[in-house]
Write a structure and sequence with these properties.
This protein is of the alpha+beta class. It is built from 8 helices and 15 strands. It has one domain: Jelly Rolls, CATH 2.60.120. The chain is globular and about 45 Å long. The two termini are 29 Å apart. The structure holds 2-oxoglutaric acid and fe (ii) ion (FE2).
Length: 248
């Protein structure tokens, strides 16, 4: 699917904090901070997530699951009402299973943007996506998409700064990285044949990595192998005239 962009992996930061996030995201479309969380901390989070299996939210009829509630899965399956009706509970659940996760991701977004970030009123904070081994995403990968669902038409059209942030809590045993294309949203949400074969970078996910990328860029979760789930925490953010706001 398309050709890899030439050049070094110069979007990768060593463990610790990234400097000048914004310039780097603008230059490369993404920043990846290795080991933002330790492997031990991720393992403890994964254990807690697995123990809370009975409280996961099934998405797309159980093709994937979330801890918390993701806006895009609810929007695409006509469950917007459910999302808002359960947002407070969803946040309480995420906080009880992985204390501090939501605040830390919001803090990282704030550090990355250099501005305060507030949660959209009535929306959910960061949550977790779980893709089971052998499931559809493992076999064929995710859909090739833009993260447009939480953006207004005006924000999409004007390319308002909008970033998606992923913390890799459990990388797949093999594959499962994120392909980010050199394609920015213009006026259609379904990518064309040319767009899905455009140049791209393949972001190789290791447990503990934090990846921040431009939500207007086309991207794709690659298929993965092995017998463990691919588990990632996510937070989306956009800059508005009143400041940055975030949601899951
Ligand atoms: O888990 C990931 O790597 C990215 C997921 C994604 O694209 C999304 O949640 O919109
Ligand atoms: Fe996405």
């Amino acid at each position: 699917m398309g050709s890899a962009r030439d050049g070094a992996d110069d979007w990768i930061e060593q463990p610790g904090s990234a400097s000048n996030w914004r310039a780097r995201i603008e230059a490369h479309g993404l920043v990846q901070v290795r080991r933002w969380w330790s492997v031990q901390r991720c393992a403890a989070a994964v254990e807690a997530i697995e123990a809370a299996r009975g409280r996961w939210t099934p998405d797309f009829g159980g093709v994937q699951c979330s801890l918390g509630r993701a806006w895009y899965t609810h929007l695409e399956t006509d469950r917007a009402g459910e999302y808002f009706a359960n947002a407070t509970q969803a946040d309480a659940l995420v906080e009880s299973v992985i204390p501090g996760l939501q605040a830390e991701l919001r803090g990282a977004l704030s550090e990355a943007t250099g501005a305060p970030v507030r949660q959209r009123r009535g929306w959910c904070g960061a949550g977790v996506h779980i893709f089971e081994p052998g499931g559809r995403c493992a076999r064929v990968g995710g859909s090739v998409h833009f993260d447009y669902e939480g953006l207004t038409r005006a924000q999409l059209r004007s390319h308002a700064p909008a970033w998606s942030m992923v913390l890799v809590l459990q990388a797949a045993a093999s594959g499962g990285g994120l392909r980010i294309f050199d394609v920015v949203y213009t006026d259609h949400v379904e990518p064309t044949a040319a767009e899905v074969t455009a140049e791209h970078v393949d972001v190789d996910y290791q447990t503990g990595d934090l990846v921040v990328f431009d939500s207007h860029r086309l991207h794709w979760i690659q298929p993965f192998g092995g017998d463990r789930a691919r588990i990632s925490a996510t937070l989306h953010g956009v800059q508005t005239p009143e400041g940055w706001e975030c949601w899951f």
